[in-house]
Amino acid sequence: MKRAVSTSVILAGIAACFVACHTEPGAAWKPVAGRIMTRWAGRVIPERALPEHPRPQMVRPDWANLNGLWAYAIVERGSQRPEKWDGKILVPFAVESALSGVGRPVGADKELWYRRELTVPRRWRGRRVLLHFGAVDWDCTVWVNGRQVGTHKGGFDPFSFDITDALAAQGRQELVLRVHDATDEANSAIARGKQVVRPRSIFYTAVTGIWQTVWLEPVAETYLERLRITPDLDRGTFAFEPVLGGRGDGVVLDISVSRNGKPEASASGPAAGAVIVEIPRPEPWSPDNPALYDVRAVLKRGGHVLDAVTSYAGMRKISLGRDEAGTPRLFLNNRPLFQFGPLDQGWWPDGLYTAPTDEALRYDLEVIKDLGMNMLRKHVKVEPQRLYAWCDRMGLLVWQDMPSALYDRSATSVEELGPIDAQWEAEWRAIMDALHSHPSIVMWVPFNEGWGQFDTERITAWTKAYDPSRLVNNASGWTDKGVGDVLDIHSYPGPAMPPLEERRAAVLGEFGGLGLPITGHLWQSEGNWGYRNLDDIRTYEERYTELIKSLSPLVDKGLAAAVYTQTTDVEIEVNGFMTYDRAVIKLDPARFGPLHRQYLPLGDAPRKAGQAGR
Q1: For 57-210, where are the E strands, in sequence order?
Q2: Which residues lie below 8 Å from residue 157, measured CB to CB, with a gap of 6+?
Q3: Would you call the peptide bond into 92 cis, given omega within 30 degrees of 0 as the criterion?
Q4: Rounded to whole angstroms, how far apart are CA atoms 279 and 339?
């Protein structure tokens, strides 16, 4: 299988130090036995667990990775800090996962505690020190040297605390974390996606605690907390909107943009607003040509440099438009493009929510590309930012779901619903903020199949107003409210299409689901299922081919996108293009990549000349 993507740019700056764990000599770790594993599990080393920079769109050269062996304890909820720890856990793998070395459930009646010691590099003295968490599921409190430095609720958005004032002047520092995660117990209303305490059917093993990289970073008193990048293809500009930490008075933002090592454009302006950079001859980003620009952002006050980060940007436009027949279509860069790819759950047999290595994370995307597809729907889960960076580099469009809050709203009081809904909206906004600058993300999907769905019209309008640069799918499957940019139905095995409308494009948000169990590569040997179970590879290939051929006429009639279920098998589901352990690709890319391209208009060149998108 070809590997066309170079890692040289995206992996720049990953060789940061790992802060010493100060664990006792001989501390043992090994994956939990008895589960299938991916081939990358054998490459996991506690001293170098996921060493890559976790935030490729805002990189400073100085940072320290805190992944590795931490002490852990599972105690009754409401207990004081443990005096005795249960053992070691490999961060950032969730405690229920095999790669954590623990493999134990937690549940709503207990709490998970973490502890580790670290040393802050001497060269950081005089700067603020930020403690970053990629994601912690779900409710956590953090202490440094016994001082509480912050709390956070939400299992999918990154967050940070300034821990400078809690640090000792020198020597070892103590970091302690407490986590509670009710998952689906007691009508829990938290956004959890497909996690359940008792896995079954389309729902999978719960994930508790740290599941993305933890890291330290030194910054100035005034620094870039976030850099929001928005392309405008029609004007040929990028808007760079900074969010500052610290004092913002008199601060200027300098932006330099280059491509293939050659300067393209630059601009400066007050950091209180967006800096607009005009690109002389913009090269559009697309699946066929994922062109990216390198970016350097520098904060200054009175000519003195306060902070500097490197980033990248893609010049692309996603919109609705009409083809020559007047049918609404999805347009990319002012041309109609049929979007086709898998429902992507993002689960791993060894790491659950967390891929064992960055190579593993990238592999799924490479298979999707090799199968000739141009998109994926990230299903009720938010990934580490490195996955979206790989989509940016490789040219994969992403529909991003909000992780669902599956609970019985009718059994919840009006008084309770206010805070519950506010928490959901706060998490959705934080996710959109964290992912805004990735050109690969072209559609937001706040709700899936009525799972915890509420105030759809208001949420859709707010999402569209908050990010006008992307399309919004008000509800994928079942519970359409007549708003947003697309009418989305689900049909198994399908395919099918919704009725054509005047103002929204017709899309097939889920279909297929052909199941093929492969002996030796199963989460469990009995009880596996797909939406249509097949017994042999030949029948599976024939049935899949029929699905694609029957999809083609629907595209001619006006279907604008289709999402096949799914990238991989997951736990007892066996309807993936690949087995859960990624050892077997059920459809040969050399055969089925050309099949997709033959029957579906997946490239930059449209099937029919279209009008400009609106």
Answers
A1: 64-65, 68-76, 87-91, 110-119, 128-133, 136-137, 139-144, 147-153, 159-162, 172-180, 195-196, 204-205, 209-210
A2: 135, 382, 427, 430, 431, 433, 434
A3: yes
A4: 27
- DSSP letter (8 states) at residue 265: E
Domains of the chain: 17-219 (2.60.120.260), 223-313 (2.60.40.10), 318-406+419-599 (3.20.20.80)
| Average pLDDT, rounded, for the chain | 94
* Local structure of residue 353 (DSSP, 8 states): T
Provide CB contacts within 8 A for 537, sequence distance 6+: 516, 586
Cα-based torsion angle of the residue sequence 123, 126, 130, 131 in order, rounded to the nearest 10 degrees: 60
DSSP character at residue 580? T
Please name the residues in contact with 359: beta carbons below 8 A apart, sequence gap of 6 or more. 40, 43
The torsion defined by the Cα of 201, 203, 207 and 212, in degrees rounded to 10, comes to 120
Rounded distance, CA 253 to CA 244, Å? Answer: 10
Token digits for 259? 């491509």
Q: In angstroms, rounded to a whole number, what is the distance separating the alpha carbons of residues 78 and 492?
A: 45
CA–CA distance, 275 with 296 (Å, rounded to integer) = 13
Residue 15 has pLDDT above 70, yes or no: no
Residue 294 one-letter amino acid? D
C-alpha–C-alpha distance, residues 27 and 465, integer Å: 52
Dihedral pair phi/psi, residue 10, rounded to 5° = -65, -25
pTM: 0.95
Q: Is the pLDDT of residue 12 over 90?
A: no
Quote the tokens at residue 187: 């009508």
Q: Which residue has the tokens 């040393």?
A: 119
Q: What residues contact 604, with CB distance under 8 A and at least 6 apart?
A: 286, 287, 288, 289, 333, 335, 337
Q: Which residues pair with 212 in a beta bridge?
A: none
pLDDT tens readout for residues 463-513 = 999 999 999 999 999 899 999 999 999 999 999 999 999 999 999 999 999
Tell which residue, 60, 62, 64, has the closest CA to residue 310.
60
Measure CA of the first residue to CA of the last residue in the chain; give whole Å. Answer: 38
Interval 237-288: pLDDT, tens: 999 999 999 999 999 999 999 999 999 999 999 999 999 999 999 999 999 9
pLDDT in tens, 304-338: 999 999 999 999 999 999 999 999 999 999 999 99
pLDDT in tens, 355-372: 999 999 999 999 999 999
Query: Across-strand partners of 505?
Result: 486
The rounded distance, in Å, linking the Cα atoms of 449 and 510 is 11
Q: What is the pLDDT of residue 188?
A: 87
